[in-house]
Amino acid sequence: MPYDFDTAVNRKRTNSVKHDFAEQYGLGYNCIPLWIADMDFRTVPEVCRALQKRVEHGVFGYSQPGGGYFTAVGQWLASRHNWRVEPRWLALTEGVLPAVSTAIAVLTKPGDSVLIQTPSYNQFNMVIEKSRRKVVKNPLVLEGEAYRVDFDDFERQIERNGVKAFVLCSPHNPVGRVWTEDELVSMGEICMRHGVKVISDEIFADLVYPGHRHTVFASLSREFLDNTVTCMSPTKTFNLSGAPLSNIFIADDDTRYDFEEEHKARGNLGVSALPAVAAQAAYEHGAPWLDELMEYLGGNVAHARDFVKGRLPDVGWTEPEGTYLLWLDFRRAGFWARELEAFIADEAKILLSSEPGAEGFLRLNLASPRSVIEKALRQLEGALERAPSRRADLSPIE
Ligand SMILES: Cc1ncc(COP(=O)(O)O)c(C=O)c1O
Predict the structure, then answer these.
(1) Whose Cα sits closest to atom 13 in ligand 1?
(2) Does the predicted model carry a pTM greater than 0.85?
(3) Ligand 1: which of 203, 206, 231 to mutate, judged by most atoms within 8 Å of the beta carbon?
């Protein structure tokens, strides 16, 4: 393998949220941090070289991506996702979450209902609630080792609550599903029937395991395209979250106009110079790196699967089809939800993420060298083996 994902990079004292701020946030001391969704790997070497060259120039005045940026994005989407985009559809933002927030502001009014599928990425709740909209939930259903959509409930929630917009997470954080074309069509048709706008967060689009294929929701039909704000980004793909630039595709001219006006109204007039350099280099040169990354992450998944199924009888396995996130079911371990996260931090000395309303489940970020994942799983095993005495006075969740 020409790229090295095995050597641990010391991220301490780099102002990394994952490594430097967990203790400050009260999330546990001296823990292996496997929580927030970034990777412990160095990015594409060509990205570092492009940044170095730009930094050497030394002048960082106002800047915006040129035609070369659009060409790079367009070619990436055509070759990796078979989606042909028009330059005029593209609005740029510094982050997908700000784009989701702007889209909510444009497509709905205060007090309106916005649908999400739970368990969900916790910041969706935050953004919807802080925008003074109502969160409506379509719970995903766990069957064996995978989640599926309850389409009847999906439509019922829309009808009952007069839902105006649906935030689709595709591939899904945290449950790792890569939605099939049929599932996307079914959700899209229900939305069309009820006049529900779709905000499609496809930030994990590029991180899909063999045997699965990401389908761009808006690529499925002209009517879906016109009804959708598609949010994509190179940040998860190439580990560039600290240098954010997101690609927001809006084919409908009126919606795009409203989106750009709202974005400006929030004081956003451009994007930073360095993220654009990084993103363009990543799209132009990052394909071999990404292919190898997915192989490495697939190895981490296989390793974790063997470990969890073989050695952690109290932990339920959910098979990830995409993302680098594992969604682990600790309900059999017999903890109250609030106890679980603290127990894992105090006893296993690893930091995992909880998501609102998903009691008994924690998310583990697999994007670290395999030796780190192995160490974390061993610490988890040891903690769960020591758990019975601690568990005796706790009631099980179910
Ligand atoms: C599904 C999903 N959407 C959006 C974001 C945030 O994206 P950004 O950092 O570009 O705002 C994350 C971050 O983890 C995420 O998991």
Answers:
(1) 37
(2) yes
(3) 203
Q: In CATH, what number is assigned to the domain containing residue 330? A: 3.90.1150.10
Report how far ligand 1's centroid is from the alpha carbon of 96 (Å): 6
pLDDT digit string (tens) for 82-138? Answer: 999 999 999 999 999 999 999 999 999 999 999 999 999 999 999 999 999 999 999
Kindly state if the Cβ of 215 falls inside 6 Å of ligand 1.
no
Position 321 in a domain: yes
Query: What is the rounded end-to-end Cα distance, in angstroms, of the chain?
Result: 46
Per-residue tokens: 228: 């959708």
Evaluate the omega torsion of the peptide bond into residue 174 and state whether it is cis, within 30 degrees of 0. Answer: yes
Q: CB neighbours of 7 closer than 8 A, spacing ≥ 6?
A: 369
Using one digit for the tens of pLDDT, what is the confidence trace for 162-189? 999 999 999 999 999 999 999 999 999 9
Is residue 96 within 6 Å of ligand 1 at its C-beta? yes
Which CATH number is 87's domain given?
A: 3.40.640.10
